[in-house]
User: Fold this.
Amino acid sequence: MKKLTLCLLVLNLLSSFSYAQPVKHTFAFSNTDFLLDGKPYQIISGEMHPARIPAEYWRHRIQMAKAMGCNTIAAYVFWNYHELSEGVYDFTTWNRDLTKFINIAQEEGMWVLLRPGPYVCAEWDFGGIPTYLLKIPDIKVRCMDPRYMKAVESYLSKLAEVIKPLQVDKGGPILMVQIENEYGSYGNDREYLKTLADLWRKNGITIPFFTGDGPTQHMLEAGSLKGCASGLDSGSEQKDFDLATSMNPGVPVFSSETYPGWLTHWGEKWAKPDSVALLKEVKFLMDTKKSFNLYVIHGGTNFGFTAGANSGGKGYEPDVTSYDYDAPIDEQGLPTTKYFALRKLIRSYLPSGSKLPEIPKPIAAIEIQEIQMKAFASIWDNLPTAILSVQPKSFEALDQNQGFMLYRTTLIGHKSGKLDVTELHDYANIFVNGNFIGKLDRREDLSTIRIPKTDVKDPILDILVEGMGHINFAQHIIDRKGITERVTLNGMTLMNWEIFKLPMNDDFISSLKSSTNLSKPGIFFKSTFNLNDAADTYFDMSNYSKGVVWVNGHNLGRYWEIGPQKRLYCPASWLKKGDNEIVVFDLHLTEAKTIKGYKTIE
Assistant:
């Protein structure tokens, strides 16, 4: 009897083990179609980025995409978000846990398109490339520069360990991996693209690849790769697909970025493109059964210092903290008018009797009454040990990637007149003998200021520099922060600097010492506020000038009075029932102002 019971137990265990085995699928190409398990398959994808979404909301956002009619989730992986410092990787904590995100997508019945870079653009700081590479004076990126490629090889090998068990042919949901991103908009080193593909294969990635480029001949010639599906950013007409097929025959072509919305820079109006062209494009793609990816279906938030910048015809254009993008699912996860229009359109193509899932319930949001802030610390009383340098050095040269840096020198020779900061990146407050003189702003191409005469024999010049987003697109992505060239006064180069690193990271903020003299700009304001329950909110910074906000030690990102963004998103997971702490660093204000919380961004 005991033997029989034991045998039955073993059989049950074996049966359970067999049942738990992942179901493997095949994903391949015909000359024109994607083939899932040998049958043509139309990918209807919605893009979202786990790094921009609180991990607690991943499932909700994926369910929202599914309820709109998507069968796939596309996701960028930001290299510099996972390699925290050179050689130090994190693929497991909070919203860096890629395995968890991809598993949730599979649990919700969704496939995955993975877009791991190494360069991604995405309005993300330096397009995802780690800024420690900028410490190398003559570094070249997105090419076969051996120093860059050494770092790439390390990253791809680490990420491949995460990806391998999640591939479709191993029972996971990942259908394809992208090789680089929009390379034809940047360069033409085809050996570089081939090497990336070879590195993935060397590291055990067996599923198909795709590229993504604008639908022009020169972009496709430089950016596509034989054997890789051709993604178009975007593919909105048949002629775009015909061109891609002629440039790279024998593989499927799809719209890898169909744009429901667009990005916004500081100082602009919110980008809010209408839906007419979008719905026309999606109808064309559905009518012709072409695969496509909506970039983005949900944007999320550039928390901390992760927002990037552009450098188009207007010069330096830093991106706002919100990545709402006027997407179908807004920053807080709510469906928009655009969402309902797309859901209705996609639903009209469902087979008879098929239904879309119900739209998930909205995430709770709260208003927070006025918080009375108090000035509590001055940057001037929290300076670290100075680094001595004959000439100013960039942030990256001193192993700092983000935040602020103070440059100080004694004026010898010329002591007043025209001060010129050559290649200031990106914003600076100027002080002489502790008195605020004015600001410089790369965005406005403002790099000179008049230094007034003073009775002080040896005036002290302080330049407090904020590094904003590293440029993430096109030819100017080598974008070091701080004073990246020199400072002159009436043409005389100023020498012998003290440099103070102010990274504004967790350690720096938690170690702030209180101050008694709070009359000079560069002030930290602080308060506590009590909540009966934690829920999402937007902190309104309309009363403040320019700076950064932390809630319970979490960096919500930058605010700036020039707008359009005046409210910063704070997820419920960063709040708690009871007392909460908020800290604000403002570059200009010396008097505390109130802050309120709202349910929406506007």
